[in-house]
Amino acid sequence: MGRQTKKQRFQLDSRAGSPFELRLTLNPDTDAEPHELQAVLELLAEDNEQWIRRMVNLGTEPPCCASCGGIRYREPSRGEHQRGLVQHDGAHEMFRKGHGNCGTIVAYDVAAARVLEDKDVWPLIVPGPWGVGSWHAVIGSPHGNTDPTLKMEQG
Ligand SMILES: [Zn+2]
To answer: Are 90 and 40 in contact (CB under 8 A)?
Structure first.
């Protein structure tokens, strides 16, 4: 097994702090419907778009995606599942922590693709691999869905 090269984590510009920072905690495993989760991630993506534009205006090029920014994919913990609360972070918090769950990563990648590449993409909720009632976030587009977490380092 080859050792994966550690990606350098994107360095935060402290000036691009919290004016647009949004952190949403929701309950995906009990009463939240897929379209509600999708609406929450869309809101988070729009917030991230503001953050990315602000970074660009400050002269710092934000990463094209969470993976290139050195973010590791971390599934929600057992504790989060048990409490039924999963936290989805905005871009600033994600880069501060160095990891994100599927919703956090998709909300960033969608925003970056829209702002930096002018792509028509959106957060999409699909059934998760963890059994009935579990959900997973992927990137929707007119050409099909992509799951950015598949190629990401875990941890
Ligand atoms: Zn990238």
So the answer is: no
